[in-house]
Structure formats: structure tokens, C-alpha cells
Amino acid sequence: MATTADIRNGLCIELNNDILKIIDFQKFQVGRGSGKVWTKLKSATTGKVVEHTFQSGHNITEVRVERRKFQYLYPEDGGYQLMNQETYDQISVPEEMIDNGKFLKEGDVVDVLFHAQKEMLISVELPQNVILKITYAEPGVRGDTATNTLKPATVETGAEVRVPLFCEEGDLIKIDTATGAYIERVKK
Predict the structure, then answer these.
(1) Where does 65-125 sit in CATH, by number?
(2) Neighbours of 80 (CB within 10 A)
(3) Where are the domains of the chain?
(4) 33-42 CB contacts, 8 Å cutoff, 24+ apart
(5) Which residues are CB-contacts of 114 (< 8 A; sequence separation ≥ 6)?
């Protein structure tokens, strides 16, 4: 058994007969009372994000998780088809299980988290950054460089990203998969 002192981002716990992954947490002290731990949790079964507050020292049930490498093959109705890189088994993953799946392109490798005892899919984690090619971008307006101006651009997966004015069609850009934000232009 773990306690609230063991809470960290990415930890999977069992609460109210559901498996939840901790997305964010914050510890705080209220006056003379005992401390509390506020958490933002994502359900492994429904994909819903909920908030829950624990009293400091409260016991929590930690779930043992296995991380396996899977390769993204292709999209399908309401989900994604992935292949295990060791056994070549294929699984279908619903859209709700992948945050920002719009940045996945064929052949990308992702981490899939499974419940160790029940062999149940918990979540799919994308790489921290991806490099994608811009397929469409409006030309930048000359002289509009006084501020940090961004324009919309469409990348090869069909996702839209806000990029600086100097980015053009055919450029490779690095994107943060957690926020969907432009990081930098990559040299070819």
C-alpha cells in the first residue's frame, strides 16, 4: 500500500473500482488542519478526467503497470491500430485512450501501459516531441514581425499547428505532443 506521499505524475491507482492515472497533483496545507493532496485523474476505462482530493497520509492502492512498445499502423473507425514490436500482435485502441492522436503518423512508436495482473489497457503515451512536414501554410505578411506573430499551418497528419511567419510548405517542424505547440524548425 502506498500513501499520498508517493503520489507523482503518471502513477496509476485504483479508486472507486476504477483504474485512474494521475495527470497532475498539488500538495497544500490548510491553516492548522492536516494537509491535503489535490489530484487530476484520468480514468482508464472511460477516458474521463476527474478531480479528487486526498487527506495527507491517506492510503492509496497503487496499480502495477507494464510499459510496452507498440508501432502505429493506421487509423480506423473511432480509433487506432497498433502492433506490438516484440510479438507482432495487433490491438485496436479507441480515440479516447490517446491524447493528441492527431500527431501520430504511420510507423511512429508509442508506449502502451497495461495493468500487470489483468492485462487491461490503461493508456497510450506519445513520444514527447514529433517531427512533421508542413503540407499547407499561408504565406507570411511582409513587415508583420514586430510581435511574435503566429499563423495556422497544416501538417502531414492533417493536424493544424500555429507556427511563426517564416515557416513555409515543405518545412519540417518539431511539435510538443502534450500541448500541440510548435517548438522549432528542423533542418532537412
Answers:
(1) 2.40.50.140
(2) 21
(3) 2-62, 65-125, 129-186
(4) 37/4, 37/7, 39/7, 41/13, 41/15, 42/123
(5) 65, 66, 68, 120, 121, 122
CATH topology agreement for domains 2-62 and 65-125: no
Cα angle: 94, vertex 97, 103; to 5 degrees: 90
| Tens-place pLDDT, residues 115-130 | 888 888 888 889 999 9
Fold (topology level) of 129-186 = OB fold (Dihydrolipoamide Acetyltransferase, E2P) (2.40.50)
Instruction: For 140-153, write each residue's pLDDT tens digit.
Output: 766 666 667 889 99
Q: Could you tell me which CATH number the domain at 2-62 has?
A: 2.30.30.30
| pTM (predicted TM-score) | 0.77
Q: How far from chain centre, in Å, is Cα 160?
A: 17
Q: Would you say 22 and 40 are in contact if contact means Cβ atoms under 8 Å apart? A: yes
